[in-house]
Amino acid sequence: MSSDLAFFVLGAFFAALAAGLAGFAFGLIASGLWLHVLTPHEAVPLIAGCGLAIHVFSIWRFRNALRWRALWPFLLGGIIGIPLGTLALRHADPAAFRIGVGLFLVTYAGFMLLRPPMPAVAAGGRLVDGCVGAAGGVLGGLAGLSGVLPTIWCDLRGWPKDAQRGVYQSYILVIQSLVMVSLALSGGIGVREMKLFLAALPAIALGAMLGFRLYDRVDPMQFRRILLVLLLISGAALLV
What we know:
The chain is an all-alpha fold. The protein has helices spanning 3-22, 26-34, 40-58, 68-89, 94-114, 125-143, 148-157, 161-185, 191-215, 220-239.
């Protein structure tokens, strides 16, 4: 196994561990690591495909937490945003994009970890939820990072941890599926990407199972801090 392939598989394991624990961080962790050994055009379909595999595997576990009335505005917005992100991928500057996302994540997560307790955000309603979903769709098509903004927004809404996962994990599952279709139709998935996907599957399964075990052991406050720390680490990794 080459050093690049070993690094890729190890990155898949840690990203899957984070996703099993937090329900969203696969793309963040994977992109922060994989972009050192893969091009954006290789990384995006792999992030989408591997993330989809995790969510297919785990969504049954959180089926009772699904809140359709809260979920549908995110999905509607995400469906609108995906084609815009896929189109932007063809023209994006990889270095500038990586730095921009990294700076945003480090700034946001650092502030939220240090700030005093704040009331949950109740304003905006479904319209703002839909706008967040649309922005997530753009990031999904552009970089496979569809879960970043919906996860942040669900946390700001102050929903219980199972309710948050029921919304944003279902959102990621649907959006990543559509991103994969969009990439396939645009010729963004090749033989090399398929081989790397198959190589990553065992590491993804192991990491996800360990993540689920950890999730059962954390309380809501610990869960929130874990989300923010993962966002911070992911942002920092993109800046390296």
